[in-house]
Amino acid sequence: MTSGLSLPSILTRAVLACALAWSVVAQAQTATVACPPQTQAPTAAQVQAAQRDARDHGALWRLTRDGSTSYLYGTIHVGKLEWVMPGPQLRAALGATDTIALEIDPTDPQMLSRMSAASAQGAPAPPLAGGLAERIARRLDAACLPPQMRPVIEAQHPAMRAITLSLLEARWEGLDAGYGMEIALAGLGRATERRIVSLESPESQMAALIPKEPAEVDRMIVATLDQLDKGTARRTIARLAAAWARGDMAELAQYERWCECVLDETDRKLMVRLIDERNPVLADGIEKLHKDGRKVFAAVGALHMVGPMALPALLKARGFTVERVAFQ
């Protein structure tokens, strides 16, 4: 661990560095294009103010087994500056652990390279039907991205381009992927010389995110673009983020009922693949690290904490005492 720096000081440096490295800055607005609100990297003073006023957000569980304690934290992949600053309970949990376990470490260049390769090559990507390529291109135009980012997104598998567009839509609600909790936690881990572990491989995550059949790819893209065009994607991310911020697991447990994204059995099967089928692998990784003597702070998307295969329940079934940590 880094010596000579308090955790608050390290947090300030880590979050500022991550924000500078990851924030997506929109191009200047013009008279003909309505761009999402621009995301600016925060100043050191803004970071320090957010740290001073920090409150805990999300949901945290204490995991105890074999006389040792680890933690499980439900995250969100977009956020705000004030959300990435941990409050007192999260600071205590982070201070008591030596390993940060994430779905995928977003600060590991090797992982990012493999993610890009898996996204570009990992599933059938025939020519898109019905003008879908043009619809995606128009949506990318409307996202007002810096020129250097457009080729990166266009190199993705078409299904991943649609997912990326959904994340970019969150900027209209003041939410940015540059303030995702995984990025902040990975930055903190590197600043404090903690071990950072990816619980999944990029290839397995892409296999879950990208449908195998071309017809399913087209269907997924159509559904995503329709949600963007109708404004339902924006409403959903705003409601999801608000529920996450207040730690409302009951609201998140009803996600499929209000997200306007699960309309038939095909959509339900997609949710099972995206969430339930990944959870045993995530639980395996957390359990192994704990068994190996690591004090783990495992941070995984909050929707993995609810439903029939919820991570807290899976870990309880494996002999952990699982307790929700109350935030003030």
List keywords for this structure.
six-stranded mixed β-sheet, alpha/beta, disordered N terminus, 10% strand, 328 residues
Explain what you see.
The protein has 328 residues and is α/β, with parallel strands linked by helices. It has one domain. Helices cover 52% and strands 10% of the residues. The chain has 17 helices and 6 strands. It has helices at residues 7-22, 44-52, 81-84, 88-95, 109-121, 132-142, 150-154, 158-169, 181-191, 202-209, 214-230, 232-245, 249-253, 255-258, 265-276, 279-291, 311-317, and strands spanning 59-65, 68-75, 99-102, 195-198, 296-301, 321-325. A 6-stranded mixed beta sheet has the order 4-3-5-2-1-6, sandwiched between helices. Strand 1 (59-65) and strand 2 form a beta hairpin. The longest helix is centred in the last third of the chain and has 17 residues, at 214-230. It is globular. The two termini are 28 Å apart.
